[in-house]
């Protein structure tokens, strides 16, 4: 498949681009906002395209042309306010879903947040963030797309271990960003992840086993 990574300059997105580019199973296109980011990927031999999640659906759909799958790995980041969370994590995600339908991209993977599907377990301090993720996920689930929603726990910058736990309702725990990127790469063509959402934390299973054991 040819995969568009939305948010390719982010910490998970950049690792996913590298894994797809080096892995050889899929072709990858990095979607970024700035010309210098685009050039940095192209200097590494990675195809890149400019588009802004605060722009139009048509702009994002144009970036997706020719792709078979899209991964939404973008986020407003912890240093921005609730307004950016709504514009990027909610509206940007929703526009990306619309764009995928418009561009004929059937496969769509979303990076969400652990327990975003379960309101009673949202953190009080960042309820706006969980609400944004919750409704972005719902938009994807109600779309025509063949989706996978990955809901990682607390994100760490430690090296990945390749050992994870994946399931419908997991206790809150941490996971290296590298392992999240590895799970996304593995899930793209894993049919057992199709039309499913799951929490993801560090665990004891190999990524392949964890994904294949999803019910």
UniProtKB/TrEMBL annotation:
InterPro entries: NAD(P)-bd_dom, NAD(P)-bd_dom_sf. Residues 7-190 form the NAD(P)-binding domain. It comes from the Bacteria. It holds the Pfam family NAD_binding_10. This is NAD(P)-dependent oxidoreductase. The lineage of its organism: Bacteria, Bacillati, Bacillota, Bacilli, Bacillales.
